[in-house]
């Protein structure tokens, strides 16, 4: 059996505050191969904090510990700042939730993607420009030459998200972390963006961590699902088996999803149990 691309064992992320220590992630463990892993849960469950810890993007005030945090044979906990920086963008990339907060508002889109590529590869501007245009076309952006010259505020939310995906994939990473990449998009554009990611991940043989709160979306797009609550993984199962979940929290989330054609009154409410957070 081949070695996993990513191994996370007992990952913890905490933040000291005036009122005590906030434990954002509490003992998360999983492995990832060349597959699509979904991480689901409510806001505040620790999904994004898990992704940021893997990327090395936890704020300085945060404390990250783990028994093992290994990417392709590299110990991420002991890696230097320089080693981490060389990995980010080149071998591990992360698509953040909202492109308008992630893209530089005063720099043309093409120049931003070129900057990412040239930070990791020694190529001239002409070759970098050609590769950026090809990548913009790969994420189904029509008239890539025109979009190359635009600023982030001149494109729609859907196109901005495609630009972010292009920027994260331009250097050919082995692992992509997508943090709610479709949450700000309408349903039609959501499907287009997911189709693009699915095609690129399959063609490149990448590992994908897909962070979302949308159970239905994750069940149709991912291979496996981790369900998080209060910083912990409460259940792990194949995406196709999500409807057969055993944990009452997962069952509660599924029960809260709307069902077309079914008249439910009153609407179901998640009945939280104190023991879920233990």
Which secondary structure elements does this structure contain, and how are they paired or packed?
Elements: E1 6-17, E2 20-32, E3 36-40, H1 47-55, E4 63-65, E5 68-71, E6 74-75, H2 81-87, E7 92-95, H3 99-102, H4 109-120, H5 125-138, H6 144-149, H7 157-169, E8 175-179, H8 187-204, E9 207-212, H9 215-221, E10 224-229, E11 232-238, H10 248-255
Parallel strand pairs: 3-9, 3-10, 7-8, 8-9
Antiparallel strand pairs: 1-2, 1-4, 1-5, 5-6, 10-11
Summarize the structure.
The protein has 278 residues and is of the alpha/beta class. The chain is built from ten helices and eleven strands.
User: Helix coverage percent of residues?
Assistant: 25-40%
What's the total number of strands? 11
**Topology as a string of helices (H) and strands (E):** EEEHEEEHEHHHHHEHEHEEH
What is the distance, rounded to the nearest whole angstrom, between the alpha carbons of the first and last residues? Answer: 34 Å
Largest sheet: 6 strands, mixed
Note down, in words, how this protein is organized.
The chain is an alpha/beta fold. The protein has a domain at about 1-90 and about 215-278: 3-Layer(aba) Sandwich (Rossmann fold). The chain contains 10 helices and 11 strands. The strands form 2 sheets. It has a 6-stranded mixed β-sheet, sandwiched between helices. Strands 1, 2, 4, 5 and 6 form a 5-stranded antiparallel β-sheet that branches. A hairpin with a 2-residue loop joins strand 5 (about 70) and strand 6 (about 75). Helix 4 packs across helix 5 (about 125-140), helix 4 (about 110-120) runs parallel beside helix 7 (about 155-170) and helix 5 packs across helix 7 (about 155-170). The longest helix has 18 residues, at about 185-205. The protein is globular.
């Amino acid at each position: 059996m081949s070695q996993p691309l990513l191994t996370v064992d007992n990952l913890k992320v905490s933040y000291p505050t005036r009122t005590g220590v906030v434990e954002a992630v509490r003992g998360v463990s999983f492995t990832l191969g060349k597959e699509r892993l979904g991480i689901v849960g409510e806001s505040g469950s620790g999904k994004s904090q898990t992704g940021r810890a893997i990327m090395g993007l936890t704020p300085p005030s945060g404390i990250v510990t783990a028994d093992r945090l290994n990417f392709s044979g590299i110990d991420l906990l002991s890696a230097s700042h320089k080693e981490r920086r060389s990995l980010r963008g080149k071998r591990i990339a992360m698509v953040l939730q909202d492109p308008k907060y992630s893209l530089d508002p005063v720099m043309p889109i093409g120049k931003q993607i070129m900057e990412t590529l040239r930070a990791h590869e020694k190529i001239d501007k002409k070759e970098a420009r050609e590769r950026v245009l090809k990548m913009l076309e790969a994420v189904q952006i029509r008239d890539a030459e025109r979009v190359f010259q635009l600023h982030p505020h001149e494109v729609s939310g859907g196109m901005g998200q495609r630009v972010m995906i292009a920027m994260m994939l331009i250097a050919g990473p082995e692992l992509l972390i997508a943090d709610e990449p479709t949450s700000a998009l309408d349903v039609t554009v959501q499907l287009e963006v997911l189709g693009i990611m699915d095609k690129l991940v399959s063609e490149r043989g990448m590992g994908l961590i897909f962070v979302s709160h949308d159970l239905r979306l994750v069940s149709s797009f991912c291979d496996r699902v981790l369900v998080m609550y209060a910083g912990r993984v409460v259940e792990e199962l194949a995406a196709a088996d999500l409807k057969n979940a055993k944990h009452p929290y997962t069952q509660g989330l599924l029960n809260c999803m709307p069902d077309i054609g079914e008249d439910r009154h009153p609407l179901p409410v998640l009945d939280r149990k104190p023991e879920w957070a233990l």
